[in-house]
Amino acid sequence: MEDQVLSQTDLVPPEQAGELPGHAVTPPKGRGDALGFARLLQQLRSERGWSKAVLATRAGLDPSSITRFEQGSRAPERETVLQLADGMALPKRDRDSLLAAAGFRSELWDDPLLIELSQVLAEDSLPAAVRSEVQSVIRMAIAYCRLQRLDHP
Fold it and tell me: Residues in domain HTH cro/C1-type (predicted)?
């Protein structure tokens, strides 16, 4: 699946994020804009007790870029968001939050299995009963995973 990357100055308004291929369909509330990304980036950096220079070094970026991102005066490219996430060694949930805040889709949608599943379920020729059965199996798998997470925190 191709991923569309925004230029450094382009932003995707949250209400339009689902219209572009490769972008979050429903960005988290208050995200998907430069200020939402700026606040989240600053929060994640502050939680680690890092200066902008430390984050820039760890992410392989110029410190002035971190300043512009945190001021909301510059929108990052998807690859830059991933560099920031790698530099902070963010867990998957925080990586996805940072991507969504910048207007990009989750990395989870890069999984070939999820891509295939969404394509199969979108087929008009798929009988409604089969679609319903598949959705039931998915719901059971989700419930199972949640139970396992509770049993093994």
Answer: 41-95
Number of domains in the chain: 2
Rounded to 5 degrees, φ, ψ at 77 are -80, 160
Which residue do the tokens 């599943």 mark?
117
Residue 115 lies in a domain: yes
Long-range contacts of 78-86, Cβ-Cβ distance < 8 Å, separation of 24 or more: 78/3, 78/5, 78/6, 78/22, 78/102, 78/104, 79/5, 83/59, 84/41, 84/55, 84/59, 86/59
Cβ burial, residue 81 (10 Å; 0-12/13-18/19+): buried
Confidence of residue 32 (pLDDT cuts 50, 70, 90): low
Give the C-alpha separation, 2 to 66, whole Å.
27
**Structure tokens of 59?**
């992410």
Domain of 102, CATH number, reads: 1.10.260.40
Please check whether residues 94 and 43 belong to one and the same domain: yes
Query: If 0-12 CB within 10 Å is exposed, 13-18 middle and 19+ buried, where does residue 56 land?
Result: buried
Q: Are residues 131 and 78 in the same domain?
A: no
